[in-house]
Amino acid sequence: MVSRVIPVEDFDLVIFGATGDLAHRKILPGLFRRFEAGQIPETSQIIGAARTEQDDDAFRKEAEASIIEFGGVKKSNPNLAKFLQLLGYVPIDAKGDGGWEALKSRIRDDKVHAFYFSVAPALFGDIAERLANYGIADEDSRIVVEKPFGRDLATAKALNATLAQHFAEHQIYRIDHYLGKETVQNLMAVRFANVLFEPLWNAQYVDHVQITVAETVGVAGRGSYYDKSGAIRDMVQNHMMQLLCLIAMEPPYHFDPNAVRDEKLKVIRALEPVENGDIVRGQYQGDGKNGGYLEDAEDPDSRTESYVAMKVRISNWRWQGTPFYLRTGKKLRARTSEIAIIFKEPPHSIFDDTGHPKANELVIRLQPNEGMNLKVMIKEPGPGGMRLVQVPLDMSFADALGAEGADMPDAYERLIMDVIRGNQTLFMRGDEVEAAWAWTDPIITAWEDSKRRPEPYDAGSSGPEEALRLMHRDNRRWREIRS
């Protein structure tokens, strides 16, 4: 199978915060890969903008080093030199007047205009205001906004209102890179392009759903930042909420940005409040060689969670009675992200002493080794009667698509190309963000009011023991965390 590369129109892309970590690790290497694949025309223009005083050549050297280091590209690659000619740079003062006229002079009238805000959220309003006041952005321009989009409902509303002063909702692209993953998009294809699963995708046939995002790294080096957010703000309110919505939403009338986001919004609004007994928070401990969360956060009294597990219920006809279990954490046993749909067991087994049929499972792997795995019961090969065994029907995208599949676009690559095309399907809408915070805020407030400390757990484990009991009391078990 050969993947098709469809070029986008010529564009002018301005990256605010172009000297920052995200631009060097993800955005610039991703843009180069799209250029090398033939998706970005050579007449396009990519302009870096930041406080650093430097010229085009200095920025190109900086970008070249990043693409080589983080993109795995050789310096001798002839496409690299061609790509670097697309780059330019303008020193800019986000809160003042410096550099804006120079930036305006670089923007071409007859091209797609996109502006990537790879900066702290506190600067979003300042940049949006100056783009409008200096006449750099027009009614067809697009702005890309990185998370965190607020830290609670009040700040999210304020940020939405600030951006709305200068840009219409159809111009604002709130990016969540999880939605750019190949497997996440394939989840919609599996559900809505096949008759096989959709009739079973409801409380009558699904016992429960597990969503796991596990990381092996801690917060050392960025502990002071992470300590102000924690696992709920950092992962649950955005990444995991988006995964939950895609699993639980009703079929949209069309694969259209607003139709898809309308159905996601309905899921968020149908979420029941989480009871105190249905949530577990944890903090990883040191192992003798490495410090624990309190040392990494540089706050011995911190009550911020590095792990959270919760049981979530959706009050609608499709999912009433089917629990969704969410867990995410730092310093866990393996780095993995997956969605597991656990179907109910057959209501009656005709196989008495030959093995009880186990529940079917559909596991969608986001990382590593993106793909899907369906566990079914079959007869164990060989003589000796009917013996049942559970086997996986495995589809790794890299294996299924061959060399083309192994070189699939990174999430950022895909999402930036969607911005250029003007396709908002995989981006969050303002009311969707606010609804997610409206559900999350009471959970955070209840925890803060309780003054409880997070449950300790060993680095390299599966999380706190209390999280295991969260499942055991429902006669269920977490799937093993493994890469």
3D architecture notes:
The protein is α/β, with parallel strands linked by helices and 483 residues long. It folds into 2 domains: 11-146, 3-Layer(aba) Sandwich (Rossmann fold); 179-408 and 427-472, Dihydrodipicolinate Reductase, domain 2, CATH 3.30.360. The chain has 16 helices and 15 strands. It has helices spanning 21-36, 56-71, 78-84, 100-106, 124-133, 153-164, 182-192, 223-226, 230-248, 257-270, 293-296, 397-400, 402-406, 411-421, 430-450, 465-472; strands at residues 11-16, 45-50, 87-91, 112-117, 142-145, 172-174, 206-214, 279-285, 307-312, 324-329, 336-343, 361-367, 371-379, 388-396, 455-458. The strands form 2 sheets. Strands 14-13-12-11-7-10-9-8-15 form a 9-stranded mixed sheet, with helices on both faces. α1 (21-36) packs across α2. The longest helix has 21 residues, at 430-450. It is globular and about 80 Å long. The model has no long low-confidence stretch (mean pLDDT 90).
Question: What's a quick, concise take on this entry?
Answer:
This protein is an alpha/beta fold. It has helices at residues 21-36, 56-71, 78-84, 100-106, 124-133, 153-164, 182-192, 223-226, 230-248, 257-270, 293-296, 397-400, 402-406, 411-421, 430-450, 465-472, and strands spanning 11-16, 45-50, 87-91, 112-117, 142-145, 172-174, 206-214, 279-285, 307-312, 324-329, 336-343, 361-367, 371-379, 388-396, 455-458.
Largest sheet: 9 strands, mixed
Instruction: Specify the CATH homologous superfamily of the largest domain.
Output: Dihydrodipicolinate Reductase, domain 2
Domain unit count: 2
- Tell me the strand percentage band: 15-25%
* Unreliable stretches covering 5 or more consecutive residues: none
- The number of helical runs is 16
* Helix coverage percent: 25-40%
By CATH, the architecture of the largest domain is named: 2-Layer Sandwich
Please write the CATH class name of the largest domain.
Answer: Alpha Beta
Cα shape? globular
Radius of gyration (Å): 24 Å
Number of strands: 15
Alpha-carbon distance between the two ends: 26 Å
